[in-house]
Structures are given as structure tokens and as C-alpha cells.
Amino acid sequence: MMRTFPFGTAALLMLFCSIVSGAWLGLHPAAQKQADLTFWTFTKIHYDPYTETIPTFEQQHHCKVDLQLVDTRAVTSRLQAAMLSDVDVPDLVEIPIDFAPAFFRGPLEHVGFIDLTQRIHQAGLWDKMVQARFAPYTSRGHIFGLPHDVHPVQLAYRSDIFAQEGVDVSKIKTWDDFIRIGRKLTIPNKRYMLELYDFRSAHLEACMFQRGGGYFDPQGHCIFDNDIGVQTMLWFVPLVAGPHKIAGSIGSGQILTQAVEDGYFLCLVCPDWRSKSIEKDIPRMAGKMKLMPLPAVTANSRHTSTWGGTMLGITRHCKNPDLAWQLALHLYLNKKELGKRYEGTNILPALRAAWSEPSFSQPRPYWCNQPIGALYAKLAPDVPFQYTSPFIATAKDKLGEALVACVQYYNANGDNGFEPFVRATLKEKADQVRALAARNPY
Amino acid sequence: MTTTTLEHSAVEPSAQRASQWHRVQHRLAPYLFVSPFLILFVLFGAWPIIKSLVLSTYTTNGPKDAVYVGAKNFQFLLSDADFHVAVKNTAVFAFWSVVLQLPTALGLAILLSQPWVRGRALFRLAFFAPYLVGSVFVAVLFNVLFQPQYGLINTVLHFLLPSHFPLDYKWLEDASHVMPALVLAGLWLYVGLHMIYLLAAIQAVDKDLYEAAQVDGANTRQQFWAVTLPGIRPVAIFVLLTSTIGSFQLFDLPYILLNNGPGPNQSGLTIVMYLYNTGFVTGDLGYASAVGWTLALGVLLISLIQLRVTGAFKGENE
Predict the structure, then answer these.
(1) Which of B79, B282, B285 to mutate against chain A (most A CBs within 10 Å)?
(2) Residue B8: what pLDDT?
(3) Is CATH 1.10.760.10 what the domain over B79-317 is classified as, yes or no?
(4) In this predicted model, what pLDDT tens digit does every residue of A185-201 receive, in sequence order?
(5) Residue-wise pLDDT tens digits, B88-113
(6) Is residue B47 within 8 angstroms of chain A, CB to CB?
(7) Four-residue CA torsion sign, B291, B294, B300, B301
(8) How many angstroms separate the CA of residue A51 from the nearest CA in chain B?
(9) What domains can be seen in chain A, in order of their start residue?
(10) How many CB atoms neighbour CB B218 within 10 A?
(11) Is the pLDDT of residue B7 over 80?
(12) Does residue B35 sit at the A interface (CB-CB below 8 Å)?
């Protein structure tokens, strides 16, 4: 054979190897999945506590759950690819708030997630959970996700420096009070009252939500250029630009750690999840940090906002939606587990009844023995509604662009012609979102 | 005579069969060997390309809904401000990449080909090393280097030029500084790779030509223009082409450097990043395909212009 094969021994060997390896692969197909449910989550903060609680569920329901940790960005691209090809679609997925609405595009019957509206109402969750948190996962009146959290926002501050400077935090009721003190404490290029992004929308949107504004209305129309949006921008920009700025941004990670330790920033916008990041990333500030409610816009208005979020959805590909729903309830409604989970994450669950668990009112040494869980829980019922659309990511980018343009304008011209500029810029950016959204017939 | 004929006719059928088998093998074997590649290419190359071309004429809404829109996706591109920003950013990056990376790489290649430079091997490795660690690592590294107040670049610049560079000079948070930051990071990442190509080309230039030039009285500069440059021309054209195409495909470097986004005011938005956002964040794969095809045609056009301008076609004909 070797002698008669015209392309030589090497080529014959290659052919032989490929046939043998192909045959071996053909005879050894990939092992069938043993799990009854496959569940993706995108953060280790969720993954770790789930690994502890899922075995209990498996025992109770005599099933096997395959919990997978998938990177935040990969969740969306992998899930989309999986749904497009109908291959390896998980049964349950946790998705960050900014990426979830993209999956609600198209006709309702083609949305990749099961409509949970009926199940939620039947289980009484609409009343048991913070209703505002269903809004981001609702499309055309249908709820496609169970909210994992509330994420109320407070301000974390350097209590040692405030004490040195004689600042009485209890007297800070409104943003006007806060800004007045901020002007006294800020030393340009050395110390700023507050960390606020002047180049992306995250902090601006929290302020907009606090005022009752948002990116979209309940029908999914882009509204960030409405009067609330304009007023928020007019108020926000002088905080981060111009001669009297009291806030700025510096980056994240170790740089921010250094900045807080050095007293470069005295306050940080602090939703519940960030309080854990601060504990972990800035350990040397233990006993020097405290939380205070967000100053109100006007007296008697809300003292909080919201930043971030996660939903849990059941995909249409799920073969056993009832079991998946049971798992969702096990993860999101088990008071004891939620209390335990809070200790490791500082994240306030959307289930109101869980907030009475002892762990939520435990004093935290890092935060000068403040019972931070109770503080967040007190603010949670006031968390603003946050309506969304599949174009939320674009809207965020556009609001960020408007912010950059307004900051540049304010740095160059100050108050002169600022309001018309803000209105025009916000409208231009919102129109771009509308143009994109107009292409979506649903 | 009769015996010979009989013997001949007895041998002939088996010899004929062997020769026929040989002919069949000759005809089929090439196809057999090419078939694994062809099958894989058709499945994972040609089919997705055709599918994406078809998809570019649809608006996709979610995983299962697609509406035929003809050329409307391409029409929308013409009025899409974000796409225009992405094209502008990508073109600016490509221009500065070529303008800065190639001369720097050539300079380094010439320098490190000189026998009088001590530790050349070490320097070659040092300059090539950033490419070995990859763009994600480089992006993470530069993200830290470019930080205001505590970043190394600001610390050094502030030390050298305190009035021009305050410590809180914003590279990645200020829209007007993002592109210089990207170009700098790109320069550090890719210059070593280009240098290696050019170095190999320089070392391959016939030494006799230099000797002949010296005999003719050519100085070092004249030798460079008359001997080195023409000698490395094919490689230089290749580097120019791959560098331009690579610049137009830019994604991971700005994506990581700017914390998974396009940066302030979309200043770091590239065409591929826009494609990714459109397809996988907003969920319109049809429009993303239109962006992809426009990019592919644009790169093809630019490559053809470059080949024409650099005389590559002419060289081939000669």
C-alpha cells in the first residue's frame, strides 16, 4: 500500500491519522449532560453563595443543577449566540440590568425568556418584592425577569475627615446643604467633596432617577431630554466642571483606593453592592468610613436613587420551567438564605420580608458600627422606577456624550448660554436614540 | 512469438488494473487532501460570509425575528452619527499607526541590525515582548499607566513639564486625549512586531550590494535609499498592508483600555466595536452585518489603493 500510494509515506500517515482520530471522535461522542437545569450567573459575588444553597435545592427536588459562572460580557454574546442557534441555551440566566432589555426585542412570542408575569402575581411576589425593581425587566407590560436586588444608593464618606473639619452630617438634608459644605472642604487638585464621573452617565443617571427622571418612559420612549433631564444636567455639570467644582473622577481599582485613603475624595456614591467593594478594596479605611442617605433634591423628597441591578430569567428553551421557577424562588425568596447571603455581599434583596433578618441590622465595624443593611432597607421602598428599552446601552452612551459636551461647554463659557446648550445637546442625543429605536417595529 | 504474446496477455490485466488504480488515486488524492480544509472552510468560512451578506439586508429583532429591509441598513449607515464617529476614529488611528509605527519600527530594525550595538538580541526581545503578551494585557497595563493623579505617565510628565501636565491630566476620561493614548498604546504594542519583519528583511539584503555601493562611493544615507529600501520593499509593503488592515480591525485594545466601552464622547469607538455593540448589546445582527460588510469593502478598497500607490502590482507584473 505504502509503495503504491502516490504521495508518499508521510501523506499516507497523515491520512491514516485523520481517519483514526475521526473514527475515535465519532465513537466517543461528548457525554450527555446530566443536569436537569443549567444556570448561568455572571459574577462570583452571586456564584459563591449559590454554590452553597443549590445542593439543598437539589436534595429537596431530587434533581441536578449545573451552575456556571460566565463573564458579564460573555453572558450576553453567548446567550444570544445560543438562542440564535438553539444550541446549549441555559435554563436560567442572571443578566445585568444594562444588557437584559436587548433580549426583549422583537414580537413578544419570540422573546427568548418566558413571560413570568402570571407566575409573579400568582406567587404574590408583586406585593412581596419592591415593585420598582420589576420595571427594568418589563417590556410591553410583560415581566421577563425576577429582580435579584434593590440597589438603593447612599453616600459613603470619610467620617474621620468630616469630624476633623467639624461637619455635622445630620444637618445635610438637601443637595444644597451638601454643596455648601463641599465648597468649603474642596481644595482644587488636592481634595474633592465627591467622586462623580464627568465623562460617563452612571452618576448623572442616578441623580436623574432621584429626581424622577429616566432614560425611557413606561412605553419605552426615550425621554432623557425632558425637563427633568435638562434640570439634572444643569445642576450636575457645575459640580464637576468650572471654577467651583466640588467633584471629579479619577478611575477605579487601586487608583480609587489610593484616592480615598489619601482623602482626595471625601464621599463616594454608594449603592449597596459598592459598600462591599469598598470594604474589600479599601480595607485600611475600616472604622473611618460611614454611610449617609443621599441628600434630597428638595426638602421632603427622596433620599436615595438606584445604580445597577440583576434579573433572573427562565429561557424559552427550558424543558422544565416549573422546576426552574422553583429554583428561582429558592434563590430569591428564602429569607434565611438571603440573610446569610447579605453578609457576604451587602446586597439588599428585592424581597421585603428578608430585610427583617438579624444580619441586616448587624452593626458593621468597617462602617463605624453602622447597621448598614437596615440603613439601605430604610431607603429601599423609595427607590425610583427605572424604565428601559432594548436601546438602553445606546441611551447611556448618548447621555454620556451629552455630559461630556456640556462639561466642555461649561468649562469654556460658564453659565453663559448654558441652558439652551444643554437643551439642544440632550435633544440631539435623544433624537439619535429615537432614530435607532424607530428601526425596531415592536 | 506465440509464447511471448500469451505471457504478455496474462500480465496485462493486472498491470492495467494497477495502472488504472494509480490514475484514480492521482485524480482523487488531491481532492481528498483538500477536502478537510474545504469542508471546514465552507462550513465555518464561506457559509457565514454568505449568511452575513443575506443578514445585512434584514433588521433582526431578537433571536428569531428578522424583517427584510433590502438596502435600508446600508442607507441608515449613511445617516448614523455613531457609525461616522467610528469610521473617523478608526481612520485616525490607522493613519497615526502607520505614520508612527512603521518609521519607528524601521528605525529600530536598522539600529538593531548594526553590529556595533551591544546586546542586540536582548533589545530585539524587549521590543518584541509587548506583542507576545498580547493586546489585552497591554490595555490593562496602559489603563493603569494613564490614570490621573497616580499613574506613572502623568507622574513622569508632570515631573518633566509641570506647567503642561498637571498630575490629574486625564488621558482616558477626556475625549480629546483618548486617541493619543490609544495610538501610544498601539505603538508600544505593535512596533516590535513590525520591527522583526523589517529586521529580517534588512538582514536578507545582499551584502554584496552594499559593498558595490561603497565601491561606487555611496555614503550611508545613499546606501539606505539605494540599497536598503528597495531591498526591503516587498516586506515593507506587507507590513504597511497588515498594519493598516489590523488598525481597521481594532477592537480589544480600546475596549479594554476604556473599561469595556467607547470612552468619553465615543472618542475610542472603532468600527468593530460599533459592530459588536450593535450586534451583541443592542441585538440587531442585521445592521451589525451591514457594518461588517461596509468595513470589509472599505478595507479592501484601501488595501488596493495602497498596493497601487506602493507599486506592488507593477512589481508583480515585472
Answers:
(1) B282
(2) 54
(3) no
(4) 999 989 999 999 998 89
(5) 999 999 999 999 999 999 999 999 99
(6) no
(7) negative
(8) 28
(9) 37-150+307-381 (3.40.190.10), 153-305+385-437 (3.40.190.10)
(10) 16
(11) no
(12) no
Cβ contacts (< 8 Å) between B287 and chain A: which residues?
Answer: 439
- Distances in whole angstroms, Cα of residue A153 to Cα of each of A375, A384, B310: 10, 11, 59
Measured between beta carbons, which residues in chain B are less than 8 angstroms from residue A390? 282-283
**What residues does each domain of chain B span?**
2-55, 79-317
A and B: number of Cβ contacts within 8 A: 133
Angular region, A150: left φ>0, alpha ψ -120 to 50, beta rest: alpha
Taking the CA of residue A179 as centre, how many other CA atoms within 13 Å lie in the half-sphere pointing to its CB? 13
C-alpha cell at A16: 491514516
In this predicted complex, what is the ipTM?
0.76
Alpha-helical regions (H) of A169-271: 175-185, 202-210, 227-240, 254-261
Residue A1 has a pLDDT of: 60
Q: A439 vs B76: CB contact, 8 Å cut-off? A: yes
pLDDT score of A442 more than 70:
no
Residue-wise pLDDT tens digits, A150-187? 999 999 999 999 999 999 999 999 999 999 999 999 99
- The three three-digit cell numbers of residue A11, written as one number: 501523506
**Nearest residue on chain A to B266, alpha-carbon basis:** A401
Mean pLDDT rounded to a whole number for chain A: 93
Separation CA A219–CA B124 (nearest Å): 60
* Å between A29 CA and nearest CA of chain B: 19
Does residue B318 register a pLDDT over 50?
no
Determine the residue among A98, A401, A409 to mutate to test chain B binding: the one whose Cβ has the most chain B Cβ atoms within 10 Å: A401
Looking at the complex, report in whole angstroms how far the Cα of residue A111 sits from the nearest Cα belonging to chain B. Answer: 7
Phi and psi angles of residue B247, each rounded to the nearest 5 degrees, phi first: -65, -40
d(CA A256, CA A281): 9
Q: Does B166 touch chain A (CB under 8 A)?
A: yes
* pLDDT exceeds cutoff 70 at A363: yes
Q: Do B148 and A442 touch (CB under 8 A)?
A: no
B48 touches chain A (CB under 8 A): no
What are the C-alpha distances in Å from A307 to residues A204, A222, A277?
10, 19, 14
Closest chain A residue to B265, measured at CA: A401
